[in-house]
Structures are given as structure tokens and as C-alpha cells.
Amino acid sequence: MLKARRLVSILSVLVLLLVALPATAAAHGKKNLIKVFFLNMGVQPQAQGKLHMIDNKAQTFFKIKVNHATPGDYDVLLDGAVVDTLTVDPNGHGALHYRERHRGRHAGAPLPFNPAGGQLEIAESGTTVLSATIPATPQESFERIHIVTELSNLGVVPGTAVADFKEHFGRMKFRVEVEGAAEGTYDLMVDGTKQAEILVDATGRGEVEFDSRPSTDDDDEGLDLLLTFDPRGKSIEVMQAGSGLFSAMFPTAPPL
User: Fold this and answer.
1) Domain segments of the chain as ranges
2) The pTM is what?
3) With contact defined as beta carbons under 8 Å apart, do 232 and 147 qualify?
4) Could you tell me the pLDDT band of residue 6, with boundaries at 50, 70 and 90?
5) Which residue of 8, 62, 128, 178 is surrounded by the most CB atoms within 10 Å?
């Protein structure tokens, strides 16, 4: 009976260890990994880019990968300065790899540049195609950002308007919703530039949704618009026939 109890106890400990392993591995990965998706600037709507960076005691490694881009050579800029050239092949793919080893016989060769905490751009002939603000730390990389703000009603029409922003790993989603307004078509302005139209139906409700990496499923009736701007710190207005109806300065960060 004693041996049976010991066996059950050992098995229980093993089960707990097995359950804890994935969480431990995930925590370890978060400690060393910076991951970010690039924002498409609208020049090549299908183009996508991402960066993975790992920094540990053995090495610092990062990779820039581009897909669905127009074939050719692109400048890689860090904080406005050209640091490398990325070649996109006829299939629309391009990649750059960088590694600095901290141990072993190959240790010592430094990275040509370190993007952490900088503004990285992929540009063609001086025009930015993809852009990303690279987190300075892995902790910042894994942070989820959610900002919601109500637009002020300027007293022209009844109703309310709300703007909602989410960001994780550089992927951004932005939604503006109008409720209680008259049926019709409204313009969404961001920093004075028209970005979309909001169709308000007979119930007085309408919305527009953006995604920096929208679905490419043609059968999806709910396809979001490609988000080519970061609304944080910019003026958001809902207008009709040139008149401002709802307005707000979108916050740069969630409220404390």
C-alpha cells in the first residue's frame, strides 16, 4: 500500500511538471523575443512584412521578412538612414537575416545595426511601402494595447460616435461606430484626410473597421479595410457634406 501511494505521488508530480512546461517555455520565449508586424502604407496594398528578434546570452538574432511585394530592390531604413538593401524575388518574397554570436569561436562580429526601439521602414525609390515602430524590449513587444474614446457631438445632429483601437505585435485594428444618427453617408476624417465612408442605416447605426493585416478571403462579407495609418495622437472627425458632426483627438495611450 505504501509503495502504491509513493507511485501515485510521483505520478502526480510528473503530471504537474508536464503541465507547467508549456507555460515555462512560453514565459522564456517572451523574455527574449521581439516580434512586430509592419504597417502597410497603402502603396502596395498586398505587401506584408514582419520582424522577429531574439536576444539571449548566446546570440542576438533578427530576421526581416516581406511577402506579397512587387519584385525589386528596396531600401531598409532605420530612423531615416539607409542601413541595408532587401531584394524581393519574382514570387514577392524577400528576407534579411542578421546574427551576432556572444559565445564560441565566431563571437565578436557585431550586428550591422540594431532595430530595437527604432523606426524601421522598407522603401522603394524613396517611397515607404512598409513601416514599423520596433519595441525596445520583449516586454513591450508582448503588450496588448486597447484604447476607446468617445467623439464629441458638435451639436449639428443627434447621436453618438465612438472610436476603438487595438494593437498587438504591431498588428492594428481600428473601428469607428456611429449610433442614433440620421440615415445617410458620413465621411471619416483622420488628421484632415478622408479615410473611409460610414454608411448609417435606418436604425441610426453605422460603422467602419480597419485592420493592418485584413483577411484575404474573398468570400468573407465582413472584410475590413486596410489600415494604412496609426490613429494615435491624430484628430478623428465624422463629417457630412463638409460639416463636422463628431470630433476628438485620439489618445496616444490607454488611460491609467
Assistant:
1) 33-137, 145-249
2) 0.83
3) yes
4) low
5) 178
